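Postdoc handover notes: sequence design on the structure in folder B. Input tokens:
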């Protein structure tokens, strides 16, 4: 059984969607958490840059 992870990647005003397939649920959940963490950090950086202007 394979597990599908859908990753929404914000790109300026549009969103791109990318699907990735993993062999185990644990691998899929680990990847999903990693991507969420990265997107959260990216959002914090963007907010910091906006406030710095």
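Designed sequence:
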């Amino acid at each position: 059984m394979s597990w599908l992870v859908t990753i929404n990647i914000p790109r300026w005003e549009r969103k791109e969607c990318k699907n990735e397939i993993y062999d185990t649920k644990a691998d899929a959940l680990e990847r999903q958490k990693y991507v969420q963490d990265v997107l959260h950090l990216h959002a914090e950086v963007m907010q910091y840059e906006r406030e710095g202007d």
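Context for whoever picks this up: The beta strands are 3-11, 14-22. Don't rerun without checking with the PI first.
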